[in-house]
Amino acid sequence: MAMDKAMEEFEALLNESFEMDTPQEGSVVKGKVIAIEAGQAIIDVGYKMEGRVDLKEFANPGEAPTIQPGDEVEVYLRQVENARGEAVISREMARREEAWDRLEKAYANEERVEGAIFGRVKGGFTVDLGGAVAFLPGSQVDVRPVRDAGPLMGLKQPFQVLKMDRRRGNIVVSRRAILEESRAEQRAEVIGNLTEGQTVDGVVKNITEYGAFVDLGGVDGLLHVTDMAWRRVNHPSEILQIGETVKVQVIKINKETHRISLGMKQLQEDPWDLVGAKYPLGSVHQGRVTNITDYGAFVELEPGVEGLVHVSEMSWTKKNVHPGKIVSTSQEVDVMVLEIDGAKRRVSLGLKQTMRNPWEVFAETHPEGTEVEGEVKNITEFGLFIGLPGDIDGMVHLSDLSWDERGEDAIQNYRKGDMVKAVVSEVDIDKERISLSIKNLGGDKFAEAVGGVKRGSIITVNVTAIEDGGIEVEYEGMKSFIRRSDLSRDRSEQRPERFSKGDKVDVRVTNVDSKTRRLGLSIKAREIAEEKEAVEQYGSSDSGASLGDILGAALKGDR
User: Domain S1 motif: where (predicted)?
Assistant: First the structure.
């Protein structure tokens, strides 16, 4: 019994010794380098176990191994004994386990870790974090895209752990987070030393469509394109180059966002301070067209001073056309100052005011009654528009087309593009209207024909046509019609057929109508007037003499 008890105690002690002295597979153990041969280090891990590790596992990326016999190192025991009776150990796996423990603590405490970029992979780079391999996305390398990562390879530098998954062996780190934090501290320090209105020197780092970023010594400020010069700047590259040192003024500092607005033109004299004196109203100056829009054109009077020529002030004659058809960019033009608004920094200019009003010129050179010739530009329901000298139009109203035809009928004789002659009737400069007349060419024939004819006059006419209702007659080329009831005082003689074409007949003028251009004529009225005159001359109605006696006496007197 005593013998068995002693054996049990010995076995328990032996097992306890094995558990204490024999390393457990899959754990990190300490060992001692006893020799280096054939590119390998022979390491004693205790309990009479030795293993071999390639020297490259003891080297950091980009460095040579510094292991020497006698050095104590930690290795990972993968297997207690292999086929050759040696322990299977790994320095790299030991470093990895050690690194993972260290990285997990750093990740939990949001601390930085040190590592070195040693390789390039799809989408980024690989980083050695002292035994553990992490992935560095390309977007996390720097605050700005990096074209050449060569200078960063193998360089020990701090990183921030963004994500870890030990089970899958994934680690994602960022270099950008470190730079941004450092940059934020630097920005805060630099911004703290800046004040609004301060003049500083900076270096142009980047140029965009809307401005340029200027480095003020660790912090960037935005120099907007509108603050580069008093004149219009279409693109910042017109006056700035990357790497150029410029003097700028701090316009505004946003303490919360750390954004800085800069200006260059603020360091120059404002040309608008002298605009009122240099450009009085009504004065004419030469300028350069800088920009053309749908509503007008901008003209630069001097660097920093631009005025707008509204489309309505561009041409006397070209209405409703795009300004680009009148002027072109960079064209030198003469303009007149129409209005100045110093508060809004606006100058209203006129282009047409530098040229004479074509309606004034036409009125001077073509007084009323002047004969003109032009092309029919347009035909409307109320008349013709005829092109005239000075690129202006005159209108011939329907009522001024013909003496003999209705306007609606006369206008059918004209086509667009026809060359016609007309007479100037009226020029209204204020309303920019010119009235023309075609029917007045050669004068007013009716007025000339009846110039000495008045109501009650006796004239001689030629019979030109016989009709049932009366006769058509002509006087000095002007035709009239005498109705049947006006052919004679005697009802039995009111017969048109008693007249023949070509007969000459004395008639009395009963009406002169200038509008209808007609003479009212009557043979009956002439006879009544003659009878009345005879009665007054040779007797009275109560003298007892017969009408035949009176007329006979009158006739004898005539003889």
Answer: 26-92, 110-176, 197-265, 282-352, 369-439, 456-524
State residue 135's pLDDT score: 92
Place of tokens 């058509």: 472
Separation between Cα atoms, residue 190 and residue 458, nearest integer Å: 113
Give me the torsion for CA of 331, 337, 341, 342, rounded to 10°: 80
Distance CA 143, CA 456 (A): 110
For residue range 367-400, list pLDDT tens digits in order: 888 888 889 989 888 889 998 888 888 998 988 8
pLDDT over 90 at 349, yes or no? yes
Q: Give exposure, 62-91, as e/b (b: 16+ Cβ within 10 Å).
A: eeebebeeeeebbbbbeebeeeeeebbbbb
Residue for token pair 């630099």:
190
Report residue 157: phi and psi, to 5°.
-155, 160
Q: What is the pTM of this model?
A: 0.45
**CB proximity list for 77: less than 8 A, separation 6 or greater:** 23, 24, 25, 26, 27, 28, 29, 45, 51, 87, 88, 89
Q: How deeply is 361 buried, as exposed, middle or buried, from its count of CB atoms within 10 A (0-12, 13-18, 19+)?
A: middle
Secondary structure string (H, E, C) spanning 438-472: CCCCCCCHHHHHCCCCCCCCEEEEEEEEEECCEEE
Helix H segments across 346-395?
358-365
**Residue 478: closest CA among 458, 461, 498:** 461
Residue 334 binned pLDDT confidence (cut-offs 50, 70, 90): very high
- How much is the pLDDT for 544? 46
Binned at pLDDT 50, 70 and 90, residue 515 comes out as low
